[in-house]
Design brief:
Elements lengths: L6 H15 L5 H11 L4 H16 L12
Helix pairs in contact: 1-2, 2-3
Length: 69
């Protein structure tokens, strides 16, 4: 991992690594810890939370499968 990577990407990788080690770990607690560890702005923390919640539910961010909104 290079130091030039955005903090949000490094934080996401960090949380995903912890979840791989312990799938029962609290996502909220990990996100809180990552936000402090990687000095994330509140909006970055919210984005990270949304991404992890959507991933855990199997939701796909972006356009629906047919490409129509």
């Amino acid at each position: 991992m290079s130091l030039g990577e955005p903090k949000i990407k490094r934080a996401l990788e960090w949380v995903l690594a912890r979840l791989a080690d312990d799938p029962r770990a609290s996502r909220a607690a990990l996100i809180d810890q990552a936000s402090r560890e990687f000095d994330l702005a509140p909006l970055d923390t919210d984005f990270l939370f949304r991404q992890l919640v959507e991933a855990s539910r199997g939701d796909s961010p972006g356009l629906p499968h047919d490409g129509v909104r």
